[in-house]
């Protein structure tokens, strides 16, 4: 049963204790990682950009106050997300970076102040190139001998996806650069976007054909570009504006604006609103002017980018982790609109958590028709929750209310205000369900937070008995980081689920056996080849690593990192399974053993106990294991390597591997990969763009290795 709500507003960062900061830092890092994955890899964000920016600002404020919490893995050090396996990977010759954000004018003044101090300027005049910030996706186009040879997305900044065939279908991208004396190697970078008109027309066509409806032009541009079949990309109207460059064998110009004109001479389109500004007043006036024009533009923009015009100064200023020091994005405030809330529906997620979704009278906000709005949780609807402090503290949301919704280049907008004057007499209070809307009508409880307190989210207690959770769990089971079954995406899974062909993970593995009856090849969209490929993909997963297997079980609070920690801690499935059964029975010794494992605490243990305490779950696991050939033991960290017991910090961008890979290799060899440099650090491995950590290493006399030296040291 739902307990009484607790009113909680986040503690001011300045008042956080070290312990509180650590917990919140970890929680926010996990939350941001999830959002990054959904946004960059799946083109399907679940919160608005404004909400995301607010989370990130708080996260950054915590790291600023507690710099010891910054690790190489922190979202503040990362760009975008690693490319998915769908496309060939392309390593960028020069990393593709993100941009620092300014929200208020003071942030812009601070940015300029930092530049003046860094360059030690006194009377020198700084010129800026001010450019609309196009809300699309960045692209790097590599030309050799003037010919287009590769096109890659940003990915995680170091590696992107090879989308050359798709990019070749864009009219705005020349196959061959125009003009004489074009440098031998030119990497032209810019933004791929879809106009608002094209986006609305595409959605109409998608709707008529019963296909995916895109949430906004950015998503539809990303989705249209990242198609396996280039003819689909060709049928979608995508534009490209050039504004930047990567590797250049020679620089044809000395300024940013000069380069923009050069791009035009090469045959590219550049944004016509770009302006050379000579002072901060100029920049701010330009920002206001573009903000006013924003609604009339045919493409989405979410701010203005200011860049130092002189390229030699850009080079001197360099980078700080994921952003250049010489540029900043001055964002626009979120767009708002007023509409009526008609209904509230409850969506049930994989772990049974409830998300109330507000059904709105459709309204246009910044070129997008909005019909749904996330209402987060019960407290939020009552106006008392964490998110409730946004303008409407104390004001609840009722069915029939006129609400102000906000969207900032985002997908799921949020309610920022309730117009009490417009509240109709018959506006109805919303009673949060005490039973799950699934056919089983299971009880609902309030979720616990990572620190064990009562959270604001409600959750169905049905676990795998609840059909809503079952399908969500199956989606996780086949996802890329779990069993990763090629050809078995959400759509196919839903199809099989609705026909009761797949109701639990083991059913996936018995599909080939049952096909004589099911005849998948007769389903529309399938054929003999695709069914053969699907079965081959299923068979190839009958051998799986222990950490993936544990993650795929979908236990609450057991994400990838925890799954890895458990796998490493127990080594084999038998040992882990045995421990889980004992934990479920309350065996104190086994609980203490699990508790002693690195990164495992009370919350995970409770969740393991709850999961294996259910006979239904034990049956699911048992039937699944029977279908597999091998659950591969987890590799225990090696202790006889040259780096066993050493502490290493990776900084800058690495050329031959991602930071994640580097860290994982170090850990496998028994080293500890730390996030910050101290006297205790044994090695700092520094790649291009290394900043403060390199300076720290020098200060403490810690040996600094190049990536190659590191690889030599570990014998790879
Ligand atoms: N809603 C979510 O769940 C979610 C998740 C992750 C990120 N986001 C959004 O994405 C933003 C962060 O994304 P990001 O790291 O790509 O940074 P960013 O979008 O704030 O800025 C960097 C990007 O701006 C683009 N850009 C457009 N015009 C440009 C120009 N003229 N010059 C240079 N760059 C230009 C480039 O693609 C570049 O990669 C956040 O502020 C957030 O709003 C949202």
Automatic annotation (TrEMBL):
GO CC terms in record: cytosol
Residues reported to bind NAD(+): 49-53, 98-99, 131, 154, 191, 307, 331
The coenzyme or cofactor needed here is:
Mg(2+); Mn(2+)
Q: Which UniProt keywords apply?
A: DNA damage, DNA repair, DNA replication, Ligase, Magnesium, Manganese, Metal-binding, NAD, Zinc
BP-aspect Gene Ontology terms = DNA repair; DNA replication
Q: Where is the BRCT domain?
A: 638-711
> What EC number(s) has UniProt assigned to this enzyme?
6.5.1.2
Function, in words: DNA ligase that catalyzes the formation of phosphodiester linkages between 5'-phosphoryl and 3'-hydroxyl groups in double-stranded DNA using NAD as a coenzyme and as the energy source for the reaction. It is essential for DNA replication and repair of damaged DNA.
The molecule here is called DNA ligase
Look up and give the organism this protein is from.
Bradyrhizobium icense
Query: What are the leading ranks of the lineage?
Result: Bacteria, Pseudomonadati, Pseudomonadota, Alphaproteobacteria, Hyphomicrobiales
The gene it comes from is ligA
């Amino acid at each position: 049963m739902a307990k009484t709500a607790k009113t909680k507003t986040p503690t001011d960062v300045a008042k956080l204790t070290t312990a509180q900061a650590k917990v919140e830092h970890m929680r926010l890092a996990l939350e941001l990682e999830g959002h990054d994955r959904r946004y960059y890899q799946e083109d399907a964000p679940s919160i608005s950009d404004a909400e995301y920016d607010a989370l990130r600002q708080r996260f950054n404020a915590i790291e600023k106050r507690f710099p010891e919490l910054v690790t190489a893995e922190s979202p503040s050090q990362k760009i975008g997300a690693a490319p998915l396996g769908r496309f060939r990977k392309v390593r960028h010759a020069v990393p593709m970076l993100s941009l620092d954000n300014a929200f208020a004018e003071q942030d812009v003044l601070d940015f300029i102040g930092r530049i003046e101090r860094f360059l030690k300027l006194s009377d020198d005049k700084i010129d800026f190139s001010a450019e609309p910030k196009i809300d699309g996706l960045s692209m790097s186009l590599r030309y050799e001998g003037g010919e287009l040879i590769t096109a890659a997305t940003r990915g995680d900044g170091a590696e992107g996806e090879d989308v050359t065939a798709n990019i070749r279908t864009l009219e705005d991208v020349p196959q061959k650069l125009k003009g004489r004396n074009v440098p031998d190697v030119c990497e032209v970078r810019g933004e791929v976007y879809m106009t608002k008109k094209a986006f609305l027309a595409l959605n109409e066509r998608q709707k008529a054909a019963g296909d995916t409806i895109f949430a906004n032009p950015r998503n539809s541009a990303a989705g249209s570009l990242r198609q396996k079949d280039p003819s689909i990309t060709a049928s979608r109207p995508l534009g490209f504006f050039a504004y930047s460059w990567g590797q250049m064998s020679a620089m044809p110009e000395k300024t940013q604006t000069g380069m923009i004109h050069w791009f035009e001479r090469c045959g590219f389109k550049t944004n016509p609103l770009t302006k050379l500004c000579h002072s901060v007043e100029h920049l701010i006036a330009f920002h206001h002017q573009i903000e006013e024009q924003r609604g009339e533009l045919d493409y989405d923009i979410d701010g203005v980018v200011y860049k130092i015009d002189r390229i030699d100064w850009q080079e001197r200023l360099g980078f700080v982790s994921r952003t250049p020091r010489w540029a900043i994005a001055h964002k626009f405030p979120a767009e708002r609109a007023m509409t009526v809330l008609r209904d509230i529906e409850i969506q049930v997620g994989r772990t049974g958590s409830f998300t109330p979704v507000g059904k709105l009278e459709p309204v246009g906000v910044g070129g997008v028709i909005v019909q749904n709005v996330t209402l987060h949780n019960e407290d939020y609807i009552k106006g008392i929750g964490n998110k409730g402090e946004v303008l409407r503290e104390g004001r609840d949301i009722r069915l029939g209310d006129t609400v102000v919704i906000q969207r900032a280049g985002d997908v799921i907008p949020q309610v920022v205000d309730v117009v009490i004057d417009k509240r109709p007499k018959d506006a109805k209070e919303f009673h949060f369900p005490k039973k799950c809307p699934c056919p089983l009508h299971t009880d609902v409880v309030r979720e616990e937070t990572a620190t064990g307190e009562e959270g604001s989210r409600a959750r169905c207690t049905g676990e795998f008995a609840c059909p809503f959770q079952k399908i969500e769990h199956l989606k996780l089971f086949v996802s890329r980081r779990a069993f990763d079954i090629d050809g078995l995406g959400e759509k196919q899974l839903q199809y099989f689920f609705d026909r009761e062909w797949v109701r639990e993970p083991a059913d996936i593995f018995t599909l080939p056996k049952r096909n004589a009856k099911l005849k998948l090849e007769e389903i529309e969209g399938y054929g003999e080849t695709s069914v053969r490929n699907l079965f081959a993909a299923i068979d190839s997963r009958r051998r799986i690593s222990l950490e993936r297997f544990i993650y795929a079980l979908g236990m609450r609070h057991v994400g990838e990192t925890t799954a890895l920690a458990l796998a490493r801690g127990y080594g084999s499935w038998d040992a882990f399974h045995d421990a889980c059964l004992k934990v479920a029975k309350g065996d104190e010794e086994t609980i203490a053993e699990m508790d002693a494992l690195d990164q495992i605490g009370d919350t995970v243990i409770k969740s393991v106990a709850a999961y294996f305490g259910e006979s239904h779950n034990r049956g699911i696991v048992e039937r699944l294991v029977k279908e597999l050939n091998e659950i591969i033991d987890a590799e225990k960290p090696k202790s006889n390597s040259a780096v066993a017991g050493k502490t290493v910090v990776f900084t800058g961008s690495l050329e031959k591997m991602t930071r994640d890979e580097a860290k994982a290799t170090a850990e496998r060899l028994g080293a500890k990969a730390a996030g910050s440099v101290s006297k205790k650090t044994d090695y700092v491995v520094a790649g291009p763009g290394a900043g403060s950590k390199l300076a720290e290493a020098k200060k403490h006399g810690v040996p600094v290795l190049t990536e190659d030296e590191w690889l030599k040291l570990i014998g790879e």
